[in-house]
Amino acid sequence: MTKLSKPILPIRLSTFAICIIGMVVSGFLQFMGITNWYFLLIFSFLTLVGVHDCLQTKHAILRNYPILGHMRFLLEFIRPEIRQYFFEGDNDKTPFSREQRTLVYSRAKGMADQIPFGTTLDVMAPGYQWINQSLAPTHLPTHEFRIEIGGKDCKQKYSASIFNISAMSFGSLSANAVMALNLGAKNGNFAHDTGEGSISRYHRVYGGDLIWEIGSGYFGCRNPDGSFSTEKYTQNALDPQVKMIEIKMSQGAKPGHGGILPGPKVTPEIAEARGVMVGENCISPSSHSAFSSPLEMMQFIKTLRDLSGGKPVGFKLCIGHPWEWFGIVKAMLETNIYPDFIVVDGSEGGTGAAPVEFTNHVGTPLQEGLRLVHNTLLGVNLRDHIKIGCSGKIISAFDMAVAFALGADWCNSARGFMFSIGCIQAQTCHTGNCPTGVTTQDPLRQKALVPSNKAERVFHFHNETLKTLKELVEAAGLQHPSEIDASHIIRRINANEVRLLSNLLPEMPAGLLLKSAAIDPTLGLPKAFELYWNKAQVGSFSALKH
């Protein structure tokens, strides 16, 4: 089977090309006296529009689709929902609602995000949630909420924003998208998670704070055989730009599933960042080779922390079998080695490459996973020693408020920041034909995304979201997002019943798991504690005591 060559002229430029040809032909016919002058005028005007579109730096759509791209903005001007239906999908076909995307776009562009005529949500629908307000609202001096991450063995604690960019790798994202995100993080003084693709040259251009994610492929710190390399790890970990190190145990969108980047997609730049050979398959195993049990995992965390000079080291996971998570916590108690942080990734998180069954039906959703992690650490008196981050469809300030209510100390967002740099959710990430240059390695397509311009939108989205969170905290009569608890959030159960989130997902009494061999069933805590806490083992992730 022969490989088809790329067309000389990309289809996306065909409209522009037709206008140029039309201008030339109509000019010749006008010169010959065969046609009327207005054809020349029309084609000349459209050609000038196309030239302007290619040269401007504000809109990636127009740079990639000169002239034709104006249809999107025309429909947006007439009726935004028409544009969103035809160009960005509807609620049934895309992972985020039109309201969520409009909110991000508005905040990123510095536009008003108020909606006339009240809410568009069905407040009587089961699952609808809200936060109770106070008759004595507070007035806070700033929206720049920060937390200090670093436990008892950490020598370089990190003062982090409570809202950061979630893990997205170079290779999944384009070089220009990575630079835009990192510059936005730099300007807004928040952190940028590298994703498991490691630290590329584009992460280093602007020097924004990095959270270096290390997956099972050990990209950026691997030997030729794929095993962990102490020497290469140390080189990256000591970089002042790296503020924290995060071990990726599992990813919400495809927990328990490895990955492969086919050889033809492994460019020299990707190979450089990941420490692999150009053109060879880049494999992420489904599990780690540097450790095989909770006890070994704690030792690995200590090693990473020591080699980094005492920077915060933690791990990310999507909760699966609860006894495996319990075994990790028991290993913390037995070794007296604690991670500085844990990031809970919900199964609703996104990815550009995962089997549909994994995306839809594997892993614990963020709400239940986050509450389980928070409660377990409370139950063994480690909650004050370990910070908890979370990720998984977090877009708005209210999403953050719910996460804080369930036990999070900070939130990460991936697609929210993707939207801010121009993603229109065309769902062509895997094809290399991203219309806005966000998820493509095509040098011409990604050139349409100008990092300096989109970085401003990253900054604005982060800034405006935290401003709104500040207003929510003030309306609730509180002083800091950390004061939001599950009693502040109400959920509708059915048309005639609502309940506090604290009743639906109760909080574990401090130290309960250390005081009693059995869980008090009257507390209403997840059955997992009663069934599996005493059976969890530290010598194996999967084994259970009988």
Topology:
Blueprint: H1 14-32, H2 37-55, H3 60-64, H4 70-78, H5 80-88, H6 98-108, E1 129-131, E2 146-149, E3 158-161, E4 163-165, H7 175-188, E5 192-193, E6 210-214, H8 230-237, E7 242-248, E8 259-261, H9 268-274, E9 282-284, H10 294-307, E10 313-317, H11 322-335, E11 341-345, H12 356-361, H13 366-379, E12 387-391, H14 397-405, E13 410-413, H15 415-420, H16 443-447, H17 451-475, E14 489-494, E15 497-500, H18 501-504, H19 512-515, H20 527-532
Parallel strand pairs: 4-13, 5-6, 6-7, 7-10, 10-11, 11-12, 12-13
Antiparallel strand pairs: 1-14, 2-3, 8-9, 14-15
Helix pairs in contact: 1-2, 4-5, 6-17, 7-17, 10-11, 14-17
3D architecture notes:
The chain is an alpha/beta fold and 546 residues long. The protein folds into two domains: 11-88, no CATH class; 146-501, Aldolase class I (TIM Barrel, Alpha-Beta Barrel). It is built from 20 helices and 15 strands. It has helices at 14-32, 37-55, 60-64, 70-78, 80-88, 98-108, 175-188, 230-237, 268-274, 294-307, 322-335, 356-361, 366-379, 397-405, 415-420, 443-447, 451-475, 501-504, 512-515, 527-532, and strands at 129-131, 146-149, 158-161, 163-165, 192-193, 210-214, 242-248, 259-261, 282-284, 313-317, 341-345, 387-391, 410-413, 489-494, 497-500. It has an eight-stranded parallel β-sheet with strand order 4-13-12-11-10-7-6-5. A hairpin with a 2-residue loop joins β14 (489-494) and β15. The radius of gyration is 25 Å and the shape is globular. Mean pLDDT is 86; it is low at 1-5 and 78-93.
